[in-house]
Structure formats: C-alpha cells, structure tokens
Amino acid sequence: MELSVLNVIIVMLVCAMTAFMSHMGMAVFHDGIRPVIPEYIEGRMHRGEMASIAFGLSVGFIASVGIGNALVTNLLNPWLLFLATDIIGIAAPKKWLAPIFGALWGLICLTGIGGINAVLTGMPVDLISAMGDVGTYVVTGFALFPIVAIIMQFGMKTGVITALIVLVFRFSGPKFSTISADAWTMMVGVIALVVLCILKDVRKKEKTEDEDMNIFSERTARIRKNLPFLMIAGALIAVACNVHILAGSDVSMFDLSKAYAMTDSVAAQSLIKTVATNEFMRALSFIPLIATTAVTTGVYGVAGFTFIYVAGYICPNPIVAAIAGAVIIFVEVMLLGFIGKFLGHFPSMRDASDNIRSAMNTCVEFALLIGSTAACCTMGASTSAGAAGGFALGACIYLINEMTGRKIMRMAIGPIAAIATGVILNLTYLIGLTPLV
C-alpha cells in the first residue's frame, strides 16, 4: 500500500463522504445499523442512543476483521474504514464536523497501520496475531441471521426446515460454483425469508391501506433524493480500489494482496480477474439483503450492492473507475423503485425488518463471543498461564460485565475482553508472573 499524496487524498475524501452520509442518514455500511436510523429520523431515538448502538455493533468488527486484515494484507478494507465512519458520522454533533472527523480517520488508518503493527506485534504476548481469532467466525455467524429471523417470525418448525435447506446448499453449493459457503448460506437464507413473507401475504390475501402500500416507495424516494451523494461515494470507493489501497471484502483482499505483490504482470492481471469474478458472485448474493433493508428503511449502503468494488478492480485507470462507480450506483438506486413497489404489496416484508435487525445482533454477538474466547485462549497458551488461563481472564471480564448490569453491550464485550486479556498478560509477563513458554 503506497503512501502517496494521491492515495492520502483519496482515502480522506472517501472517509469524509461516508461519514457525512452516515450523519445525514443517507447511507451506512453496517447492515445492522440501517434499520436503526429511521428510529432517529422519525423522532423515536436520540442521536446519542443511536451512536451507542452503532459503536456496539461495529467495534468488534473494526478491532478484529478491520485492523487484523489490514495488517495482514497491507490493504485498507471496509470494516476498518466504513464501520468507523458509520460511528463517526452518527456521533458527530454537527453535519460539518462529520466529514472533517471522517477525513482524519482515513488519514490515521492510511498512515498508522505500519506503526500499530510494529508496536503490538513487538509486545511479548502478541496481541495482534491473537486478535485475528476474534473475527474468525463473524462472517459465518452473520450469514446465519436469516434462519434466526425466520424462527422469530414464522416459528421453530419453519426455522428448522429452513436451516436444513440452508445447510444443504452451504455444503454442496461451493462444489459446483465459485460462491463461498458463507455466501450460499446468506443467499439461500435471505431468499427463503423473502419467499416465506410473500407466501404469508398471498395466503392471507390482505389488502393494506394506501399509506402502508406506499411506505416502501416513500423510503425509496428518499434514497433517490440522496443519489448525487451516493454516486460521488461510489465513484470515490471505486477509485480507491483501482489505485490498490482498498479491498472490498474478505473474498478478495487476500488474493489482491498477492496480486499486487507479483512481479509478473500477466499473472497478476489473471489473478485480479479471478478476484473480480468472485467479488461479483458475492455481490449477487448480497442483493436480497441490501435491497430489502434499503427499501424498508430508506437508508442505502455506502457501497451499494458492492458491484463498485468489481469496477474498481478491473477498470484500466482511476478516471474510468470513477465513472463506472457512479453509473453503477445510479442504476442500482433506479432499480430500487421497482423493488419498493413490489414489496409494498407484502406487509410481512416490512415486519421482517425488525426481526432482521434483532437476528443480526444475536448472530454477531454469538460469533464475536466465540472468536474472542478463542483469542483469549491463544494469548494464554503463549504464556505459562496456558489456554485455560487466557480463557479464565476473558470469562471473568465477560461475567463481571453481565453481573453488573451489562455496562458494556454484548456486541462489544467479547473483543474488549480479548484486548484486556492481552494487556493483562503482557503486564503479568513484565512482573514475571506469566513467562512465555
């Protein structure tokens, strides 16, 4: 990742724009935050409360997937940049402060990755390497949320049947396609949720009031009103991918890191094309989720359906990438109107949005807790305390939080417990209590 003036400007502009859109409720990166924003816009929630939720939903991803993958690949990623700008934008008290704080975050990320890596990996107990375990199951856990949402909305029997179908596709899908197991899990689960909602409304043959029928169209119109800002963000993100400083997902970042390090340009371009194909398949699997949450909330994703990543990888230069990114976002938003009109006839889809939010929280909380526990055990195993000692430290922190009224949200306590465990083990090493093994 080259630290040039151009790259610094691009990253600062990307983060400034995404933070501003987050503050204004136009778009966010985290799918779990999207359903919360209408609660604030419609006056049912304070900005401080929304910021607390955004922090709780995102801090674990930033600390694990974001920082960990950036240090490993030497590429910036959406979890590091956009989850943080979600929080920054929402928490900023004034709209003019949001882009300033966002730009500063981009500058810190681009210049600070090397320094952080040197400091943390230089500790006796390697905290950074172990923190990679925190995000091990996040993507897999997150992909299971449609099953939980279905159980919440349609009952245990339907949920179990759906889970069996999803697992069949999860295990068999990657054998005959380039789509990953997690992408198959989410794609089939979301499709099942949509189909069940439609079938329920068709069977009831409910006739909703015009006001209810138009709610999706109204929120889609809100997204269209913000289209110029969304297109600018799409152009900037595509450029960031094109100049080799941003990778769009875990599907692409590791292979992109290899490709950018290759001296054989032909082999590098071949690998980049493969990466672009995989990213395209991933984007297809995310369409149902992003489209559904967008038309039910009126809040879009900062990267849209994520096809702009593909454009960034394969376009010949930054100018073409910028044009392609803006056009892709334009087409996506125009198509949302048709989706909104379709969903306006199915009130169960509107009801599903709350279940989706709760299910996302439940699945990610569980995955982060498991991953954080693994990180604690990894750090403990490198000292005389042993894996059990690391587990005991992490568990103690978690249980204290639970028994004292959950001062820290469950979404954040796992990663925080893992970080605290690493710090404690380093301190006990310094006083000779837990020597390295």
Describe the structure.
It is built from 20 helices and 2 strands. With 437 residues, it is mostly helical.
Report a brief summary of the structure.
The chain has 437 residues and is an all-alpha fold. The protein is 76% helix and 1% strand. Keywords: Membrane, Transmembrane, Transmembrane helix.
Structural class: mainly alpha
Main sheet: strands, sense, barrel: 2 strands, parallel
| Contiguous helical run count | 20
Taking pLDDT < 50 over at least 5 consecutive residues as the criterion, the unreliable ranges are 207-212
The domain tally reads: 2
- Quote the average pLDDT: 85
| SSE ordering | HEHHHHHHHHHHHHHHEHHHHH
The total strand number stands at: 2
**What share of the residues lie within helices?**
over 70%
Give the amount of beta strand, in percent: under 5%
Separation of the first and last Cα atoms? 35 Å
Note the overall shape.
Answer: globular
Order of strands, widest sheet? 1-2
Give Rg in angstroms.
Answer: 22 Å
